[in-house]
Design brief:
By secondary structure, the protein is α+β, with helices and mostly antiparallel strands. It is 17% helix and 31% strand.
C-alpha cells in the first residue's frame, strides 16, 4: 500500500507550470492535500519538491538552498527577461569574450540588491506584477535583498548571440532571469535567460528526482514510495522523548525541559531567551525513533519563588513546545512509521 504522507522529489518537465504538476499528482494519488516547495517558471525544468498529505505542514521547514544551471544569451533583451517575452533590443555579441564575462561575475556574489522581472508574481499594492504588466501599466518594481553563494562558469558558446552556461547556488527569492538581465547590462550587450534547470532545491537533488511518467508506472506496479517526512527535515537538530512525554507532546502539551530528553537539539538551550525561541527542532520517539513533528524551545511562565527570600527573582522555565505535530495520535502504524 502506498503511503499517503511524505515528499516527492519531482522532475518538472518543460512547458508545465508547477500548478500543472500538482494537479496531475492529485489525480494520480487520488488526494487533494498536495503542495509544492517553490515555483518554477513553465519553461524551466528540474527539481520541484512536492509535499503530500500531512507533509504539507512541513514545507516551511525544508532547507532554504537552491541551485540551478542556467544558460544566459547575450545580445538580446526581452520583456520577461527570458525567451518567453517579446524582444526589446538586439545587437551583436560576437566581440564578447568568455574571460570578460567571468571577470564581472564576482560583483553578483554575496548579498546583493536585485530587481525582480516585471513579469513575476511579486505583489505591489496587492496586485501581481505580471497582471499589471499585461495591462500595460508602468510600475516601480521594488528591489529585494538576495544571496548568491556561487556563480561557476561551465560552457561558453561564442557568436552573434553568445551564450554562457552557469552553475548557480543561491538563497530563496533569487530570480535567475534578473541575474541574466543584469549580467547583460554589465557587459553592455544586454542578455536574457535562454534555459533554466533547477538542480537542487530544499534538500532534494536532480540525480534523485523522478518524472511524472515514472511515478505513474511505479504506482501501477505498487513499487513506489514517498520520501519520508522525517528524512526531508534531517537537517534540523533533534530532541528525543520517552514514550510518555512523546504522547503528551503530540497532544499539544508544553513540556518543561528535563533529563529525560536527549539529542543535539538541547544544545539550543543556552541561546534561548524570552524574545528568542530556538530554531525549529525535530521531535523523535525514543523507543521507535519515529519522527513526530517540529517543535521549539521557549521560555515558559515564571515560577513562584518557593523560599521566603522576596528579593530572589522567579525562575524562568525553558519548555519544549509544538510548532507542527506530524503524528498526532497513537495508532497501529506508529511503531512502523518511517522517520
Amino acid at each position: 500500500m502506498i503511503a499517503i504522507n511524505g515528499f516527492i522529489n519531482l522532475y518538472k518537465p518543460a512547458d508545465w507550470t508547477s500548478h500543472d504538476c500538482v494537479a496531475r499528482l492529485r489525480r494520480l494519488l487520488n488526494t487533494k492535500k498536495i503542495g509544492h516547495g517553490g515555483t518554477l517558471d513553465p519553461k524551466a525544468t528540474g527539481v520541484l519538491p512536492v509535499a503530500v498529505g500531512k507533509a504539507t505542514r512541513l514545507l516551511q521547514y525544508l532547507p532554504d538552498g537552491k541551485a540551478y544551471q542556467a544558460v544566459v544569451r547575450f545580445g538580446v533583451t526581452t520583456t520577461t527577461d527570458d525567451l518567453e517575452g517579446d524582444i526589446v533590443t538586439q545587437q551583436s555579441a560576437a566581440g564578447l569574450r568568455r574571460e570578460d564575462v567571468e571577470a564581472v561575475l564576482p560583483q553578483f556574489l554575496g548579498e546583493i540588491d536585485q530587481t525582480p522581472p516585471i513579469y513575476s508574481a511579486i505583489q505591489v499594492d496587492g496586485k501581481r506584477l505580471y497582471h499589471l504588466a499585461r495591462q500595460g501599466k508602468t510600475v516601480k518594481v521594488p528591489t529585494r535583498r538576495v544571496t548568491i553563494r556561487q556563480l561557476k562558469s561551465q560552457y561558453w558558446q561564442p557568436g552573434e548571440q553568445a551564450e554562457l552556461t552557469l552553475d548557480i547556488d543561491c538563497g530563496p527569492g533569487t530570480y535567475i532571469r534578473s541575474l541574466a538581465r543584469d549580467l547583460g547590462a554589465a557587459m553592455g550587450t544586454g542578455a536574457t535567460l535562454a534555459n533554466l534547470m533547477r538542480t537542487h532545491s530544499s534538500g532534494f537533488s536532480l540525480a534523485d528526482s523522478i518524472t511524472l511518467e515514472d511515478i505513474e508506472q511505479a504506482l501501477q506496479t505498487g513499487k513506489w514510495e514517498l520520501v519520508a517526512a522525517g528524512q526531508a527535515v534531517q537537517h534540523l537538530p533533534a530532541i528525543t522523548l520517552p514514550p510518555d512525554l512523546a504522547h503528551r507532546w503530540r497532544m499539544g502539551q508544553k513540556l518543561p525541559i528535563s533529563d529525560q530528553m536527549t539529542g543535539e537539539g538541547l544544545d539550543e538551550l543556552a541561546a534561548v531567551s524570552k524574545d528568542s525561541p530556538s530554531a525549529p527542532l525535530r521531535i523523535l520517539d525514543a523507543d521507535t525513533q519515529v519522527f513526530l513533528g517540529v517543535g521549539e524551545i521557549e521560555i515558559g511562565e515564571p515560577t513562584v519563588a518557593l523560599s521566603n527570600d522576596q528579593d530572589k527573582p522567579p525562575t524562568l522555565i525553558k519548555i519544549l513546545s509544538c510548532k507542527r505535530v506530524y503524528l498526532s495520535q497513537d495508532g497501529p502504524g506508529l511503531t512502523s512509521a518511517p522517520n
